[in-house]
Design goal:
Elements: E1 2-4, E2 14-16, E3 38-41, H1 48-56, E4 60-63, E5 71-76, E6 90-94
Parallel strand pairs: 3-4
Antiparallel strand pairs: 1-2, 5-6
Amino acid sequence: MHVLLDLRGSIPAFIHITDGKWHDSNVLDVMQFFPNEIYVMDRAYVDFEALFRISQAGAFFVTHAKGNLKYEVVETNGNINEETRLRGDFAICLTGLKTKSL
């Protein structure tokens, strides 16, 4: 089951039920993305075409990058509150071979 929670209410905004053979990143192919929304997901969702669609929709995403992700930092937000345990806030540009064509 894949669920999109809208934190402004108590009812999920999107639910998609699949069998165990469905890869997590495939759910991004059936979701609609909205401007100024922030989508948070784990590293299983690193699907560059889908992440590009999120960006094209005017939305944002946060994901845990895989260890071999090739990128360069283009912007750094230095206003990190150490109490949150957040290690960094960066805007990046993907530099890998498969990401340059998007």
